[in-house]
Amino acid sequence: MIRVGICGYGNLGRGAEFAVSAAPDMKLVGIFTRRDPSIISANHTVYHIDELNHMVDHIDVLILCGGSATDLMTQSPKFASKFNIVDSFDNHNRIPEHFANVNQAAMQGKKTAIISSGWDPGIFSLQRVFSEAFLPQGETYTFWGKGVSQGHSDAVRRIPGVIDAVQYTIPIETAIAQVRNGELPHLSTREKHLRVCYVVAEDPNQESRIREEIETMPDYFQPYDTEVHFLSQEEFNRDHKTAPHGGFVIRSGSTTSHRHIYEFSLQLDSNPEFTASVLVAYARAAKRLNDVGTFGASTVLEIPPYLLSTKSIDELRKVDL
Questions:
Q1: How many whole angstroms separate alpha carbon 153 and alpha carbon 222?
Q2: What does each C-alpha distance from 76 to 45, 109, 125, 261 come to in angstroms?
Q3: Coil, helix or strand for 212?
Q4: What is the mean pLDDT of the chain?
């Protein structure tokens, strides 16, 4: 049995708890949080995050369920020197920097780390590589939504004065239609997506400042047209407590005089639960890689698919080939 720890117990952490519990080859050792463990309601033992210092010999893989905006840039390198880890770091522009920091720590500790292993970056990253390799002549387009972005929502919630927030990513339908028609349009970031935020502010007098901080946030919102709506906690709880998401990777390419559309899509009722399931699959791969002496950091692009499965490679060859 692979002994798993979960660090962070928000929506993603709760999804990871369910996914680990459902895995036939895993055992959940505990959940680790910065909050007071006594106030956390969970189906497994909850520890303060400081207790991880005493759990090195009891955890095979630590799944990091914090946010990319403020948590993972520090947590992943910190824990990668002591544990095999998996994270879902999703700030695309800073992945090379994050990779370098985690890789250095994991190499020093002879541990294995798999970063950015959600669905984008993650599964969608794989589809972009596949489609471009299969159709080298063409263009690749990625659309997200309509749905809740966990990373962007977390980034808004970290702004001082914000009590609660959610961010919806909405693809521009005319842009999708152009791509599916094989028109090969040149689309800017702003032309592909709209970002819409719903925010509960602690003080209405701070709404203008909060709006400006959201709209000018580098990487997350600055490159996009962004709408910010303020509402009460009651309205928020009524209308914005689910977390659907999804999206498309579309490659429009050609071979000789023939045109081809390669499309991969996801439709998710629960973004955090699906992302957590991806993390758990890559936690299995991290343990297996470490067992054979593969140390340092990797992304999903470097992981053989069979390492994600509960089936052996012989079973997979028989069933899926």
A1: 15
A2: 22, 13, 20, 37
A3: helix
A4: 96
pLDDT (tens digit per residue) in 157-184 = 999 999 999 999 999 999 999 999 999 9
What residues have CB less than 8 Å from 234, skipping those under 6 apart?
Answer: none
Written as one letter, the residue type at 167 is Q
- Neighbour tally for 54: CB within 10 Å: 9
Round to whole Å and give the CA distance between 115 and 90: 9
Q: 189-229 pLDDT, tens per residue?
A: 999 999 999 999 999 999 999 999 999 999 899 999 999 99
pLDDT in tens, 70-125: 899 999 999 999 999 999 999 999 999 999 999 999 999 999 999 999 999 999 99
Task: Give the chain's radius of gyration (CA, Å).
Answer: 20
Cα 65 to chain centroid distance, Å, stands at 9
Query: Tokens representing 144?
Result: 């997200």
Which residues, at least 6 apart from 39, have a Cβ–Cβ distance to it below 8 Å? Answer: none
Distances (CA, A) of 163 to 32, 116, 221, 233: 23, 27, 19, 8
| CA angle (149, 245, 117) in 5-degree steps | 65
pLDDT bin (cut points 50, 70, 90) of residue 319 is: confident
0.70 surpassed by pTM: yes
What is the DSSP-derived secondary structure letter of residue 57?
T
Asked, as a colleague might, if the bond just before 146 is cis with ω within 30 of 0, I would say yes
For residues 187 and 247, what is the distance between their CA atoms, to the nearest angstrom?
Answer: 17
Q: How far is CA 53 from CA 48, 169, 236, 273, in A?
A: 10, 38, 38, 28
Tokens of 310: 């509960």
Select from 273, 270, 281, 279 the least CA-distant residue to 23: 281
Query: Hey, what are 182's tokens?
Result: 């094989």
